Amino acid sequence: MNINYIRPLDFKNGRIEMQHGSGGRVTAHLINELFAKAFDNPYLAEGNDGAVLPPVSGRLVMSTDSHVVSPLFFAGGDIGSLSVHGTINDVAMMGAVPLYLSAAFILEEGFLLSDLKRIVESMAHAAQEAGVPIVTGDTKVVEQGKGDGIFITTTAVGMVRDGITLSGNLAQAGDKILLSGPVGDHGMAVLSQRENLSFDAPIVSDTAALHGLVSAMLDSGAGLRVLRDPTRGGVATTLNEIAQQSGVGMLLNEAAIAINKPVEAACEFLGLDPLYVANEGKLIAICAPEDAVRLLAVMRAHPLARDAAIIGEVLADSHGFVQMITRLGGRRIVDWLAGEQLPRIC
Amino acid sequence: MNINYIRPLDFKNGRIEMQHGSGGRVTAHLINELFAKAFDNPYLAEGNDGAVLPPVSGRLVMSTDSHVVSPLFFAGGDIGSLSVHGTINDVAMMGAVPLYLSAAFILEEGFLLSDLKRIVESMAHAAQEAGVPIVTGDTKVVEQGKGDGIFITTTAVGMVRDGITLSGNLAQAGDKILLSGPVGDHGMAVLSQRENLSFDAPIVSDTAALHGLVSAMLDSGAGLRVLRDPTRGGVATTLNEIAQQSGVGMLLNEAAIAINKPVEAACEFLGLDPLYVANEGKLIAICAPEDAVRLLAVMRAHPLARDAAIIGEVLADSHGFVQMITRLGGRRIVDWLAGEQLPRIC
């Protein structure tokens, strides 16, 4: 065997082998032929173990997420686009402009190169659409049975806008709570794919990068206190987190919380509460009461928040209870979900 | 069952359960009781999905690595300390001061909480010793049999020193090649642990954060072109990468490359070439010939490079061949290793 000969990557029938993670020539080949081509940008092209980026000045923001969603492909997206959107959104929720992404792959021996290519191209597309390049990365391979196809960890850095301070501990009694659209789409899209359920109408993940919407909201000058994307655990968990961080209570209006019909039907069928189901393209905003209507108008003018609504308000309550007026006019506690939640939804 | 009741974490006999990754209250409990306590810093304590950091100004550097080392614990370190050192080193090799780390965990259902605690505390210790805080993170859980205990992906950001430009494509004919110490310690420490081999003398991983050493080297004002840590694939692979990036050849002097006796014996026993075995606390420096001796003195004055040596020089050679004068006076090509390399060494 000529040790200088590297087999071309077979993107039709080829599979990941242990040596794709060895750090040697075969790894370099995979990186050059797949990742560097798809993510094409000058920082990555330098080929170093890290990226040197242009000068910045201001408050830095950093966020990271591992993605282990199963199945890898679902209506509306895949683990690739999800891993770009999710991490960009975390940075955007801090009031920051996302600038750069890193991507680290843990591949299982035997994983189809065709699936890897499809995922990497989906990431590249999502990153390009969002205007946030993937500037550095890493590839590891584990033996068959020690992973699950592919896990992707993305990290984003960004710069906070001048004069903006958003944090989960800044909600105040009297503030209004806004939600950018219907809940539960992502979680139910993944679940129905996983369980091979089909409903009358298809359920499509809402996965999207929200930094453009956030930018419009910040431009409005409205008195924003908190932005948060209700992913794992859904709207209920996110609001409980904020209530705890800020030491306040909340009162929600169930009638104001939109749910797409197929999602509602699927949740009913499976006995799930859509308030606890993950979203990947929605945000919760908490703002000063006097600015809520103006902020709502700005949100509704953006394509990713056409169905935005004011869904409740913040109360003085040191216990941090989140309560809800139900559609029937009753009142109930929207608690943290202590038991089983949908696993591997992102 | 009272849904407000969360079982205390049992760090003696407890195990990771799927709900530790659900994003709900049980996840929050794990984060608060383990990660936030161990990594204790004000950015993480904010409890948001990302960290807002103090103002910075200058050229940003970003690097990421997934860690899948097996076994998780080995002489001289564990996956926790390794995941801190490895990523700090990648940033340091760009001539940057590492500032912040993120850490994302993919845990396998059933993983011992006692092992997780030991690893997290080791990370915390390594980060504190290096002066680089872990400011944000993520935790996911996959079903038993879909992971391998724990995978850790760390990302580091740093700022490049003013006036410094290091890159793998800057080596020039005539430059000297320096190596900071003996090769192969990390790879052989992991391998001997994995294979339950015991040798007369113990083999201990060299895992260490190199940013202090790099800082001293940059302070010297020597004309540095390239810094690189020879991890996966070892010194041979790293030098081949640089030769390819810079479009130059290299001539090494085998007699100048130090190997600890137990590592040499173990490599001989297992039929491995130590030049291809991973290091986690060594660096290769390529510098202008007139500065080599001065740089060497600076390195030897640092505790992590007491055995530094000039191991070769850069040649004009558009083929990018790395050659070596052997101890017996012959000449051989030090090629990329095309075949099997040690898997899961970092």
Describe the model.
Two copies of one chain form a homodimer. With 346 residues, chain A is of the alpha+beta class. The first copy, chain A, has two domains: 18-160, 60s Ribosomal Protein L30, Chain: A (2-Layer Sandwich), CATH 3.30.1330; 176-333, Alpha-Beta Complex (Phosphoribosyl-aminoimidazole Synthetase, Chain A, domain 2). In chain A, 29% of the residues lie in helices and 25% in strands. Chain A has nine helices and 13 strands. In chain A, the strands form three sheets. Chain A has a seven-stranded mixed sheet with strand order 8-10-7-11-9-12-13. In chain A, strand 2 and strand 3 (77-78) form a beta hairpin. In chain A, helix 3 (79-92) runs parallel beside helix 4 (113-130). The longest helix of chain A has 18 residues, at 113-130. The first copy, chain A, starts with 24 loop residues before the first helix and ends in a 13-residue tail after the last strand. The model of chain A has no long low-confidence stretch (mean pLDDT 94). At the A-B interface, helix 1, strand 1, strand 4, strand 5 and strand 6 of A face helix 1, strand 1, strand 4, strand 5 and strand 6 of B.
